[in-house]
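Data card: per-record layout.
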Amino acid sequence: MTEKSASSSGDRPPAWFDLEDGNRLRVGGIWRLAQVVQLSRRLERAGLSGREVQEVDASGLTALDSAGAQLLIRAAPSPDAITGIDERYRGLLRRVADAEAATGTLPRPGRPGGSVAQLALIGWRTVGVGIRIWELLGFVGLCTVATGKVLVRPWTLDGRATVHHLQTTGLNALPIVGLLAFLIGVVVAFMGALQLQKFSADIYTVDMVGIAMLRELGVLFAAIMVAGRSGSAFTAEIGAMSLNEEVDAMRTIGLDPIGMLAVPRIVALVIALPLLTVYADLVGLAGGAVVSLAVLDIGFPLFVERLSGAVDETAFLIGLAKAPFFAMAIAIVGCFEGFKVAGSAASVGRRTTTSVVEAIFAVILIDAAFAMALSWLNI
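The structure for this 379-residue chain is written out next.
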């Protein structure tokens, strides 16, 4: 199998190869970066690799760089099987071979198929998740250090940016969080009323709405809305700055991108989410009160009286205590994915989607951890 026969050597392209005697590969011409992609495709199309040839004659090479040397090594069964190479390129070939061996990419294994491919895919996905968690933990450490510097020297915090993010994540989120909390209160009260009416225990609907909203649902749904609304915005904003090389410019002039971009967002969200939680609790209770009045004929005075007797401040404080942890998780994940944006605008969309999913997952995971800890403490 040959790509260009010896008889047509005058028509050969700038970079060429011939297969002689079935297992001896002759290469020649200019094997540099500009030709590597096309050469690699032609070698693959010809079915040639280190497993099909026994010797590579490189006496015809007229120019070679590191990219061409890498392709040449991968086409040979071993670096020692490359013969006839000019002394000018022997040192380069040896260094590239050492680098290939050090990175474990030589020799290249065949692509597995069937069940082996599925197992390999699961393995690579598992490794990828582990690497991602490790990178995220490293970013958490960077944010912790940067936040610690701000706590030691508060005047270094960008106050204008913090206030801006406090407005966008907190004040501007009031309508959507309020609407969601009201509807959640309505649904919880309505479903509770339908079931408790069967046992003539209508009044306990107030207890259920109060405990559910104050302890769990108010803060949880507020955090989920903030993750979808503000966490994605953090990723998109920082991702756009990464694409425009603004983050690199900050590093070039000696500024810390973590301190300038991530810390103000974390601080703003840690302040905003507890306030949104209180707001969501009140609006959710209002939704429950409306359903209680409409379905159970429980007036607002009786609703408030029953609520104050059935729910103590512990449920409210437990829900409020979760808010800062949710806020830190959302802000850190959003900023982390923003800094990971690279390549093209499509990366912004992918990272934004990933940040929302990861932030919601982190919120639910933290909420589950709180549930287990409080159960263990019998609170």
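Known properties of this structure: The chain is about 70% helix and 5% strand. Strands lie at 15-20, 24-31, 55-64, 82-83.

See the next section for split statistics.
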